[in-house]
Write a structure and sequence with these properties.
The chain is mainly beta and 110 residues long. It is built from 1 helix and 5 strands. It has one domain. Helices cover 12% and strands 35% of the residues.
């Protein structure tokens, strides 16, 4: 019988949870908190996802905001209609900030 794995050896994962509304306004759009860690090591907030309704668009857009792992600065990464992809963008930014150029302050349209 294999030895039981302890919670201390649990691999860190990315978790997403919907935040409660800050106000009672019916027009307030949802936000999600993205965390990284495990039960054994604790959870660290690595970013947020904000839903926006763009005029003329059928689907909602999700904008990723990442927390820079070294400076702690909040960086708006990018928007897309794919929620899961926004979670992956935040996780990638947490692992390696160079995966997103937004935090460098450089324009991609030079």
């Amino acid at each position: 019988m294999p030895a039981a794995t302890s919670r201390a050896s649990e691999e860190p994962t990315v978790s997403v949870r919907k935040l409660l509304a800050a106000t009672n306004r019916p027009t307030e759009l949802p936000r999600w908190e993205v965390t990284y860690g495990s039960q054994a090591t604790g959870w660290t907030v690595i970013g947020w996802i904000e839903e926006h309704r763009l005029r003329g668009a059928l689907n909602p857009f999700f904008f990723a905001v990442g927390v820079h792992p070294q400076s702690g600065r909040h960086v708006r990464l990018e928007g897309n209609i794919d929620f899961d992809d926004r979670v992956n963008v935040i996780a990638d930014f947490h692992q390696d900030p160079m995966t997103s150029r937004q935090h460098l302050g450089l324009s991609e349209y030079r």
